[in-house]
Specification:
Blueprint: H1 4-14, E1 21-23, H2 30-43, E2 45-50, H3 58-69, E3 72-77, E4 80-84
Parallel strand pairs: 1-2
Antiparallel strand pairs: 2-4, 3-4
Length: 99
């Protein structure tokens, strides 16, 4: 569980990145979840966007993915949401969260 201070720090990092995964009319599939998992393994922080044609709610979708992948919900704004998961190997962690 991340603290409010850590969440604020992650939000500031997320402002600088573009959405890496777009969720379209096919909604949330296993392929999308695997893609998000791979991206979290590589980068620890991911921004996703739900396209206009989808009926998914960003906050519910983000929480569902976070539960499945063991990630942390950072924020949801409009059709975009941000997830964070620390790298499993401490030497590969690129994001140092404030305490």
């Amino acid at each position: 569980m991340i603290t409010g201070k850590q969440r604020s720090y992650l939000k500031s990092l997320a402002q600088k990145i573009s959405p890496a995964v777009y969720i379209g009319k096919a909604d949330l599939t296993d392929g999308i979840i695997n893609l998000i998992d791979d991206h979290l393994n590589a980068n620890e922080l991911i921004k996703c966007q739900i396209q206009e044609g989808s009926d998914l709610d960003p906050k519910e979708t983000c929480n569902r993915i976070a539960d499945e992948l063991g990630a942390e919900f950072v924020q949801a704004i409009g059709h975009r949401f941000v997830l964070y998961r620390a790298a499993r190997d401490p030497q590969k962690r690129s994001i140092q969260l404030p305490r």
